[in-house]
Design brief:
CATH superfamily: MFS general substrate transporter like domains
Number of helices: 17
Number of domains: 1
Strand content: under 5%
Structural class: mainly alpha
Largest sheet: none
Shape: globular
Order of helices and strands: HHHHHHHHHHHHHHHHH
CATH topology: Growth Hormone, Chain: A
Number of strands: 0
Distance between the termini: 33 Å
Amino acid sequence: MQILLTNLGMRAASLDLMGRQGMLDFGSFTDLNRRAGELVGSELAQLNAWNTMASQWYAWFQCAFLFGAAVGGYLFGKLGDRYGRTKLLGISILWFAGFTGLAWFAQSPHQLLFLRFLACLGIGGAWPNGVALVSEVWPNKFRPALASAIGMAGNLGIFAMSSMAAIHAVTPDSWRWVMLVNTVPVLLGLGVLLLLPESPAWKKQSSQETGMSSECSPSVFKGEHLRCVFIGIGLATIPLIGGWGSANWMMPWADEIGSQIGKEDLKAHIGMARSLTSIVGSFFAGMLAVWMGRRRMYFLISLGALLTAQYAFWMTVPGDFSFLVGAAFLGLFNGFYFGWLPFFLPELFPTSIRSTGIGVSFNFGRILTALTIFATGALMTAFESDYARIGRITSLIFLFGMVLVSFAPDTSRRDMMH
């Protein structure tokens, strides 16, 4: 839900808050956007300038999500290894839900940017502690299905937000409701803290390490674990850059075109198509990884995502049925990735550093992704907000995934209780 909040609502929020701060004349912008197909000269230049500014703010909000989640993934992951998975999972959820609620009061793009960064610290912290907890509680024979369920649950959240947006459009006049909806997980965080048992594997490891000096404590950045961290970061970065740096630009592209052709809900339908197929992909990801092998599956996912993205950004435009099909197939491969990652990443690390290792691997990739988005923002200016050209370039990252996975270790015999 938080992922789609960023993709679905931040361009609309940018336009509203830019208008409140005098960065654009919202009435003139609405009129020019309505007449976009007939504009020439200074009016066309003005509309392009405002759209480019909105795209740049959208990129900043994506970066706030990514940098915040990266920092939070490390901090909350490390605290989870020290104080317990369940405790830090609950705190992470309360953290991101609370700061998301505060974002309802933002009156400028800068205020919203700051609050989104703070909220995303908690988003980054929830994933590694939740994944570590699940991987340690369930026996190996059940883990493929549970890892797939984690990816599927994320896509259910995306689908839920897309469905709500199809019913109640996210526009510059009405974007704040998505902040209130995403405050509801406060109840989940309280439930986790009060009702969810701690990981038995973590409790056993913690009792063994009682009294151990900090110099003797294991670290993901030392010795044999360092190679696994770099591989984990790389494997998690590929789908993040592929998603945030290319496929997710389908949303503001559809938003811009939809407002020009009178289909305000176009972006919501794109989100629904992607999330539905992502649910299917993530549901089967863990089982397919066992059947065909972890590394072979990752290679095939990367190949499929590359071919689909190149087709979508070369051959289709928003409003075409083929664009919807391309978005749906990208969603399928996205689901495969994010069902595969919670299955594979915990296998790279022992219990003592599992939350930290998962948090660093998954979330540090967000830093590299954010740098890509910074570059994308510059390209948006250079290419005059041509989303298609940006997507063609950034989706080439899937090529690197096909190469990188060959260096990953065979983790199929890892005992997750140690």
